[in-house]
Amino acid sequence: MIKRLAVLLAVLALILAACGAGDDDTTTTAAADTDEAAQQAGGTLAVVKARGTLKCGVSGSAVGFSETQPDGTATGFDADYCRALAAAVLGDADAVEFTALTAAQRFEALKNNEIDVLIRNTTWTQSRDTDIGMQFAATTFYDGQQMMGDPARLPGLTPDSGFEAIDGAVVCANAGTTTEKNISEGAAVAGVTITLETTEDIPAAMEKFKEGSCDIFTTDGSGVFGNRFVEQAAGTPGADDWVIFPTAPFSKEPLGPVTRQGDDQWFDVVQWLVFATFIADENGVTSENIDEMRENTPELGRLFGTDEGELQTKMGLDADAYYQAIKQVGNYGEIYNNNLNPIGLSREGTFNAQWFDGGLIYAPPAR
User: Fold this and answer.
1) Is 172 part of a structural domain of the chain?
2) What is the count of structural domains for the chain?
């Protein structure tokens, strides 16, 4: 109680100071000071609650995952996880400020407190988890790298082709990503020679592929399928003939939310937001039926705040925090199907199926 009171008093003092500001620069500075005071007093959760909005870092140009809209909001799988987190913490799924970040910008933005959480098709790796100092929550999408080529430029290309098909090719990839490293290492192991052309972001790589300056476009399989879908829908000449290969991805790309190290409370909030969507999906609890099903089992009652054994209040949240996330946004299956099924990414037979269906979507017990 004393700690929370200190947070509120520090934040209130800064808000009052900000109210006397007469220009945008002063207001912006006061807001930054408010965030810093709340951060020091109570961590990221206190910052988000005091501010009243969640700052979520996304790609903004990842088809099906996060695409920036004209009004500054974002749509997609990752964007919906941002909204679900806002619903859990603030009770309002729309209380999100989306920040579009390139691969080169994303980790610095998180480390510098420019965003509260990064939910941007980012692969969990050893160096990012240790050397760079990120903390990865539960994986929300199991991906793997694939390539796309035009048989008109590479005769004989099929979905069963491998690295032998790209010997001598010019390959476009996003700079500063696991994609860039994977394609270089894969070519070296296969004993083929490629010319690697890197770009600042995926759309730029795709443009080079379309214009013919690259023979191969490569990124996570989800991005390859998503970009082909967009071009096919737009009627781009030849897009229906583009081949995605190899059939089995040649890398592991576990994607999920990322927080700063050293803020365990906020990490737990984000981690269990993901698990809540998994558990709801596992039990058939959706945004449409949650009011009828939230007490069907003791575990659901605890997770959605109706059982006295709930743990959300001990985490610094309202008891019904994760109920709000499911009610306002949906369970894992809803988030997946609404955003990824339309671009041809089915869960069936993939690691993104529930654990009892042969996938890896699995949550610890809520108890």
Assistant:
1) yes
2) 3
Q: Which domain holds residue 204?
A: 145-247
From 247, 272, 290, the end of a domain falls on: 247
What is the DSSP annotation of 127-194? Answer: HHHTTS-EEE-S-SEEE-EEEEE-TTTSTT--TT--GGGGTT-EEEEETTSHHHHHHHHHHHHHT---
CA distance 50 to 34: 8
- Residues 281 and 134 grouped into a single domain: yes
Establish if 365 belongs to a structural domain: no
Q: Is 102 helix (H, G, I), strand (E, B) or coil?
A: coil
* Domain end residue (candidates: 203, 226, 247): 247
Strands 141-143 and 61-62: unpaired
CA dihedral 62, 68, 69, 74 (to 10 degrees): 90
Beta bridge partners, 243, equal 149
pLDDT tier at 36, thresholds 50, 70, 90: low
Residue pLDDT, tens place only, 41-98:
579 999 999 999 999 999 999 999 999 999 999 999 999 999 999 999 999 999 999 9
Selection from 244, 146, 242 nearest residue 186 by Cα: 146
